[in-house]
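Re-running the complex after MR caught last week's input typo. The corrected sequence lines follow. Everything else is unchanged.
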Amino acid sequence: MSIEVLEPGLLTTVQDCGRHGYRHLGVGQSGVLDSFSAAVANILVGNSPGSPLLEMTLRGPVVRFSVPARIAICGAGIDVHCGDLVLPLWRRIDLAAGSTLHFGACRSGARAYLAVNGGFEVDPILGSTSTDLRAGFPGLAGRQLQAGDRVRLAHGIQPDCSEPRIARCWANPSPELDFKQTALVHLLPGSDQLADADALHSTPWTIGSASNRQGLRLSGASLQLRNPREAISEPVMPGTVQLPADGNPILLLADAQTHGGYARIGHAIRADWPRLAQLRPGERMYFVPCSTGQASRLWRRQQQGLARLAIAVSRADQA
Amino acid sequence: MNSRFALEPLGEDAFLLRFGSSIDAATNARVHAVANVLQQHRPSWLIEIVPAFATLAVQVDLNQLAHEVNWRERIQTWLLAHADAEDVGMAPAPATMHTIPVRYGGEFGPDLDGVARHAGLSPDEVIKRHCAARYQVGMLGFAAGFPYLIGLHESLITPRHATPRTEVMAGSVGIGGEQTGIYPRKGPGGWQIIGRTDAILFDVQRQPPALLAPGDVVVFRAIDERGRPLA
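Corrected-run output:
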């Protein structure tokens, strides 16, 4: 039981909800960048929200299923065909054995997720199946998928159908993800203050082409610190906004290194990480100031939305 | 706040305890002592305890805490109480001592001669001084299992390469400014490479996976190509 990778796409990796408890050894978090879309995809197929799935970046792979499977595709607005049939996103879909999914380009957003009932079977390393591209573990030998790879599927539901069967119900990603709106990212204060306190919030920021799973490289205004200091390496976290000497901020994502020597001028709140994960090079975003109380409320709202979806899916299955 | 440390926010789910802002062994030892106390009293909501040279980060599990109205205040009180407790001074982190055998110079340490020239010393004297020191593992970072070692002899301080090498072999022992360290894995790196060890710095099949822990003590021992100790 596996899916075979016929074409790998731009950057396709196995990810789960990340590797925790090893930052003191220099091991970062990894895991899905858009935890919201990944959780919805898993919930729609009946998995627990943090199960391993495939994360695709900007252009997806071509994969063939050796067995019938129940799947869902969520996240970026990606083109996907099965034969002549265009498959919808944010829905449960049952596939016959031998089905080939042709993923194309993301028309909006940057990262899409393919969940399969039962999950992908990858041996966990340090408690997680997430591919750590920097450390080189585990996923498939710690790297992105390549043509010819077979990713094992855990034993899951094998629906009986000869062509794709698409569920009528769909999950609505709004307001967590709305690609028609310019992204507004809530920012908590960092340790280092800017010479102009409003400089971060008063201009739009453009996502640089060198951005990756480690961080978004932003350009807009050239920022200056109020009190530049000789910085030594200190812990950083996903969400941390660093300011190197060139004045262009870097917003760290799930593959963030564990320590960094640059000033920390803010922290993007977790509820906004899914939207950050979907920003494409050249797109613009704004920062808005935020309190820790507001961060907690937005995080809880997102988690409660996922919990309600899980209940609705489970009720629909029982009905 | 507190005379011995400050508590800084590090996003919505992490805090930074600051004990200083320079690289020195005494401040770093305090970081590891506090990390050790937090580890000993570790509640289930404490996901990460991340030491650095003069700071210590902790990350908490929002899923366990976010439903509490005043969780931040509770966690901050807990951190302050434990980081300031009398038993911090009484319970230094258990510093395991490691002896790392190193083949210095030649193909193993292509920058040994350059470091010697920069220091105005002979290569043998560089090796002698590098082996004479007791180093403290200030922190692990940059890559999985990469130790930043504090205690390099002043005369051996050498700037990093202006342009990093695209490939440094696993086990390479390097000098980067006032620090020395070991590359666990082949990859790019800018430090001056003076030798190489066969020691496996990081192995996911091992528990714990990292050979060195923050706060441990390291000494280097020079060996020849066949692994025999050099006089």
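None of the earlier attempt is carried over here. The first strand of chain B starts at residue 6 and ends at 9. Chain B touches chain A through 47 residues (CB under 8 Å).
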